[in-house]
C-alpha cells in the first residue's frame, strides 16, 4: 500500500458521508499532489478495497435502478440493437454499408454471448476483461447456431429478418435477466 493510499484510508475513516470531490480535494491537500493524481490514487484505493465509494442517491426500486446511471449499459445495448436492425434491413449502399458490416459482426459474434455472461456473472469483478471478451465470443458462437437450429424448424426458416428478430429477442431477454440480477446484487451491496 502506497503512502497516498494510506492517507486516503485515514481520510475515509474520519470523514464518512463526504462527497467524492471533497474527498479528492482533501487527499490532494494532505498528500501534496495534484487533483488528477489524487483522483487516480482514490480510484486505485477503491479498486483495492481500501475505501468504499457509495452513490449519493441509491435507487430503492427496480424502476429507479432502470432509470439510474447503473443501468446505462442496458440502454446503450438496446440502442445498439435497434440501430443494427435498421442498418441491416434498410442500408445497402456505401458508405453506411460498412457500418452495417461492423455492427452486424458485433451483433452476431459478441453481443449475445456478452449478455449471457452478464446474466451469469452480474458482478463486474468476477472475471477479468480479457476473460469476459473470450467467453463472450465463445458463448456467441454457441448461441447463434442454436438460434439458427430452432429457426430451421419454424415456418419462418433461416432468413435475414427471422434471424435478426430472434437474435434481438434473445439478446434483450438475456439483458433483462442480467439487469434484474445486477439490481439484486446492487441492492444487497448498498442496503
Number of strands: 0
Q: What fraction of residues sit in β-strands?
A: under 5%
The total of helices stands at 9
Give the SSE order as H and E letters: HHHHHHHHH
Taken together, the total number of domains comes to 2
The structural class is: mainly alpha
Helix percentage range = over 70%
What integer value in Å does the Rg equal? 22 Å
Q: Please, what is the average pLDDT?
A: 91
Query: In terms of per-residue confidence, which ranges show pLDDT below 50 for 5 or more consecutive residues?
Result: none
* Distance, first to last CA: 29 Å
Shape: elongated
Largest sheet: none
Q: What is shown here, in short?
A:
The chain has 2 domains: 45 residues, no CATH class; 129 residues, no CATH class.
Description:
With 191 residues, this protein is mainly α. The chain has two domains: 3-47, no CATH class; 62-190, no CATH class. 73% of the residues lie in helices and 0% in strands. The chain has helices spanning 3-14, 20-31, 35-47, 62-66, 72-90, 96-109, 111-120, 129-152, 160-190. The longest helix is centred in the last third of the chain and has 31 residues, at 160-190. The chain starts with a helix and ends with a helix.
Secondary structure: elements and pairs:
Blueprint: H1 3-14, H2 20-31, H3 35-47, H4 62-66, H5 72-90, H6 96-109, H7 111-120, H8 129-152, H9 160-190
Amino acid at each position: 500500500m502506497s503512502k497516498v493510499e494510506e492517507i486516503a484510508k485515514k481520510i475515509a475513516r474520519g470523514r464518512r458521508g463526504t462527497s467524492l470531490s471533497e474527498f479528492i480535494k482533501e487527499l490532494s491537500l494532505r498528500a501534496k499532489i495534484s487533483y488528477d493524481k489524487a483522483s487516480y490514487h482514490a480510484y486505485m484505493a477503491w479498486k483495492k478495497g481500501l475505501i468504499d465509494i457509495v452513490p449519493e442517491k441509491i435507487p430503492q426500486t427496480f424502476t429507479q435502478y432502470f432509470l439510474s446511471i447503473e443501468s446505462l449499459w442496458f440502454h446503450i445495448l438496446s440502442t445498439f440493437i435497434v440501430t443494427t436492425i435498421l442498418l441491416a434491413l434498410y442500408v445497402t449502399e456505401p458508405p453506411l454499408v460498412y457500418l452495417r458490416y461492423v455492427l452486424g459482426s458485433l451483433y452476431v459474434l459478441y453481443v449475445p454471448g456478452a449478455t449471457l455472461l452478464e446474466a451469469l456473472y452480474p458482478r463486474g469483478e468476477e472475471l477479468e476483461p480479457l476473460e469476459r471478451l473470450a467467453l463472450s465470443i465463445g458463448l456467441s458462437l454457441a448461441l447463434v447456431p442454436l438460434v439458427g437450429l430452432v429457426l430451421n424448424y419454424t415456418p419462418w426458416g433461416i432468413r435475414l429478418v427471422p434471424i435478426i428478430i430472434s437474435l434481438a429477442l434473445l439478446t434483450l431477454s438475456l439483458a433483462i435477466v442480467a439487469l434484474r440480477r445486477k439490481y439484486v446484487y446492487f441492492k444487497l451491496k448498498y442496503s
